[in-house]
Amino acid sequence: MAGGNKRKTPDINASSQADIAFLLLVFFLVATTMNTDKGLIRQLPPMPPEDMKVEDQKIKTRNVLLVFVNAQGNIMAGDQEMDIYGLKDKAKEFILNVNDEENLPEKEEIEIEMPDGSKWNYEVSKGVVSLQTTRDTNYETYIQVQNELTRAFNEVRNEVSMAKFKKEFNDLNEEEKRVITKAVPMAISEAEPRTGRKK
Amino acid sequence: MKKKGNKELPAISTASLPDVIFMILFFFMVSTTMREEEVLVKYQLPNATEVQKLEKKNLVSYINIGVPVTHMQARYGTAPQIQLNDSYKTAKDIGDFIAAEREQLNEADRAFMTVSIKADRYTKMGIITDVKQELRRANALKISYASREAESL
């Protein structure tokens, strides 16, 4: 650099740089958490106004699949007892109602706007899965049941998406997802718990 | 030492060590977030397979439910507690909590606020239902039951 000057600036000793970096690393290890925010996402129904009558929300019995979990973790779906492994298929059968049976939910044909501007008529099931628990039901059992019901809806969505777009639901873009979500709404109602009292 | 045939192994250069450490450091800086609150309850999340990731961390509020941590048990016992921010609260306080959390968001984001319920797997549904009812009353309708992702149940 400076031609005639024989004195050089001495090199800065960099051997402690690693230690400094280590210190920073340890600080971040301690002060931060990993991003582990995952969960079953649900939309709660809005609180009904106080003066609303119960009769207003009457739905036909064929359109409701009542899933009841008691304090012992026994599951009842419809009017039969079942274990957690059969629940998904039961819910799927309920949502799809392939053969248009009398005791399974009605369907309503609605027009869905496709991303390319065309219209698509699809028979949307009017079925609602109603999940009820007691106050003593275990949270883990409840989540398992929620999980199975979600799985049922996700599988139905996958099937519809396969038939319509030839792709899995998760590989669709936002617009296509919106279409499928409209065709197969996640209809899980979370009612208040049954009180222990007899009717 | 200077004899022939007795060559010394050269020392491994540690000049790249800081770079390696910096790389690890940056990895942690990017993939983690600051711890925002002290967790006062012990919880073990339930397992689920159909979990979805919560986007936008700043729109998420947390409600922790579980048994108090060991050093708080002397004062609060071992019954499950609801933790909002940094203290134990009851379900009745959730309305205020939601209002305060909502206040912190800007207007456009308020509709997308999500409440993540981090509850211990052995909690009873009664307490969860109370929380849910309060959330409905506070009009915080988008919730997430925090769960651990599992391959199968």
Structure description:
The complex is a heterodimer of chains A (199) and B (153). Chain A is 33% helix and 22% strand. Chain A has 199 residues and is an alpha/beta fold. Chain B starts with 16 loop residues before the first helix and ends with a strand. The model of chain B has no long low-confidence stretch (mean pLDDT 83). Chain B has a single domain, classed as Nucleotidyltransferase, domain 5, CATH 3.30.420. Chain B is built from four helices and ten strands. Chain B is an alpha/beta fold and 153 residues long. Chains A and B meet through helix 1, strand 1, strand 2 and helix 3 of A and helix 1, strand 1, strand 3, strand 4 and strand 8 of B.
Features:
heterodimer, A: 199 residues, alpha/beta, two-stranded antiparallel sheet, 4 helices, 22% strand, elongated, B: 153 residues, Nucleotidyltransferase, domain 5, six-stranded mixed beta sheet, two-stranded parallel ribbon, 10 strands, 25% strand
Helix and strand arrangement:
The complex is a heterodimer of chains A (199) and B (153).
Chain A: H1 17-31, E1 32-34, E2 38-43, E3 64-69, E4 75-77, E5 80-82, H2 84-96, E6 107-113, E7 119-125, E8 128-133, H3 139-165, H4 174-183, E9 188-190
Parallel strand pairs in A: 3-8, 8-9
Antiparallel strand pairs in A: 3-4, 4-5, 6-7
Helix pairs in contact in A: 2-3, 3-4
Chain B: H1 17-31, E1 32-34, E2 41-42, E3 47-48, E4 52-53, E5 60-68, H2 70-76, E6 81-84, E7 87-89, H3 94-104, E8 114-119, H4 125-137, E9 142-146, E10 148-149
